Amino acid sequence: MIGRGSRKLPSKKTFTIIDLGNNIQRFGAWEEPVDWKYVFERPEEFAKQLHYQLSGGSSAVQSHGLSAELRAQFPNTLEMTFDIEGHYKEAIDTDKKPKTVIQQSIRQHAKMCMDNAETLSQAIALAEALQPEIDWRVKQYVKCLDNASRNYKTWLLEDYQNRLKGLIIKLYPKVTAA
Q1: 114 with 175: CB under 8 angstroms?
Q2: Of the four listed, 14, 40, 120, 123, which is most buried by Cβ atoms within 10 Å?
């Protein structure tokens, strides 16, 4: 049904999707790429991913929100959101490398952790608590790249967390000493 609405016509600028079955939450946004070969070759793994998404592990852009539990851990932070797609488009438009988006995101997360912790170990614990948000941001970033592999996404998730912790360790004494 969405295929008809998404057909490009000179006279059509938009179309509306009314999702009465929570399909966006279950399967992601209609414009997200689907690896159908993976779906048909490994249906059990695909089903596990869907279950993970339904349990809050990941979600579509439209339904992304921080859990109340996570938000409560950052009372000194006013702005916890970060528009990956917007920053990506800005980077491309200004001839910056796309990886600057991840660097900006890591800096924001590091500042959030340091602003809401009294000790270095608390700041690192907050960084670990941010894992669902990190997962979501990396997923959005990889979507912007179009051709990124699963291995790259897995590496990027690990690298993000390592760089976040490293930045907190590097900056924490300087922030508290000032």
Answers
A1: yes
A2: 123
Rounded Cα distance between 129 and 70, Å, is: 7
- Burial class for 126, CB neighbours closer than 10 Å (0-12, 13-18, 19+): buried
DSSP-assigned letter for residue 32: S
Q: How far is CA 174 from CA 120, 168, 170, 177, in A?
A: 11, 10, 8, 5
Note whether 131 and 116 are within 8 A (CB).
no
Residue 29's SS3 state is coil
Compute the distance between CA of residue 100 and CA of residue 98 in angstroms, rounded to an integer: 5
Q: Compute φ and ψ for 97, nearest 5 degrees.
A: -75, 140
How far is residue 4's CA from residue 17's CA, in Å, rounded to a whole number? Answer: 11
